[in-house]
Known about the structure:
Blueprint (H helix, E strand, L loop, with lengths): L2 H9 L6 H12 L5 H14 L3 H12 L15 E5 L8 H10 L4 E5 L9 H5 L11 H11 L1 E5 L6 H12 L6 H14 L4 E8 L8 H17 L3 E8 L7 E2 L1 H12 L5 H17 L5 H13 L2 H12 L10 H4 L5 E6 L4 E6 L1 H11 L15 E4 L6 E2 L4 E7 L5 H11 E4 L9 E5 L1
Parallel strand pairs: 1-4, 2-3, 4-5
Antiparallel strand pairs: 5-13, 6-9, 7-11, 8-10, 8-12, 9-11
Helix pairs in contact: 1-3, 2-4, 2-8, 4-9, 4-10, 5-12, 5-14, 9-10, 12-13, 16-17
Amino acid sequence: MRPYDVILKKRNGGKLTKEEIQYMIMGYVNGEIPDYQMSAFLMAIYFRHLDKDERAIFTEIMAKSGDMLDLSPIKGVKVDKHSTGGVGDKTTLVVAPIVASLGIPVAKMSGRALGHTGGTIDKLESIPGFKTSLSLEKFFENVNKYKIAVVGQTANLAPADKKIYALRDATATVDEISLIASSIMSKKLAGGADAFVLDVKVGSGAFMKDISSAKELASAMVEIAKSHNKTAVAVLTNMDEPLGTFAGNSLEVLEAINTLKGQGDEKFRILCLTLSAWMCHLAGLGSYEKCLELSKEALDTGKALEKFREFVKAQEGNEMVVESPEKILPISSKIVEFKASEDGYISSIDTEKVGIACNYLGAGRVKKEDNIDHSVGLEFLKKIGDKVKNGDTLVRLYVTEKSNINEAMNLLKQAYNISSSKTNSLEIILDIVK
């Protein structure tokens, strides 16, 4: 077998065998196939795509290229939640305690911020003392004892995906449904969960800008899960405006705690309850409707808040963050305001620009090795459909002397559009794919 023959076959629209896909992926990972031939192979996939069977094989081979976590020491059905990334997306901090408080084990490996979206691990590290690195034994012990643990991705999960993604990023082959779905699901399969709830973001702040491409991605990921005897549900959610009230690490932890206390943004609450209910349903707790009621009860009675406290303490964080988040969390006291320049209604928000503005303040990173500032971020006072007057504050910027305030303000000016006619506020849940 030669790389040339496999590239030619896919370029001409042929269906690849498992042996051919394995030959290309592992040959590239092992250094036997050079970048230029793998680039040609990826470009052939970009234009010809992979069918359902090829996607399942492609995903499996990438998943098995490194460690395959065995979560069998954890009792019960393990359901993982994955978000395709967004601005202000702190759902894990609320969903995980809700689900764990209902007796469902949450064994989660999360990532860090890169690009315009935030990372759960960075947010948790805003809590003084919180450890995001645990041994596998301690990870299992915490999940069995407390039903919850969230750690950084330390295992060698899907190394083929890491190497191939870097090449895709350099060769303009990132935005192809088969390759996106295989990339995400290879890490999910390697992570060892029994079922997956996939939060697929749609809109200006998401990777998928329109509902049709988001549905296609969601369907591909659900199909891949089923082909590997896993269950999955995809929830399509709106990212045409920032999620909730805050973006930025400490600020998002503050908002998560307030949400667990029954306060805060209603759309964010709806999203958290929806994701929690689907996770509980896939874990076998009952119908989706019953699981939604149980999730609401866990939130409204304070069960989920107490589980969050237990979770923070178990990973050596300062549990007083639950009582006094504003005092415990590092939140900058220096505030700059971005104001409306005319009367009207907020008609649209370029959420990706908002995320980049947050990074200019110091809340994110461009390269993995960049340091982030947990104290900075954005507070959104007005959203799409809201009436505003000239001079009204639209966004509060929490800044430090290191923040690039001018760049952030310029991006916010480009991101917010005000029109004379009223625009309807956005629905948060757009569709469900099963």
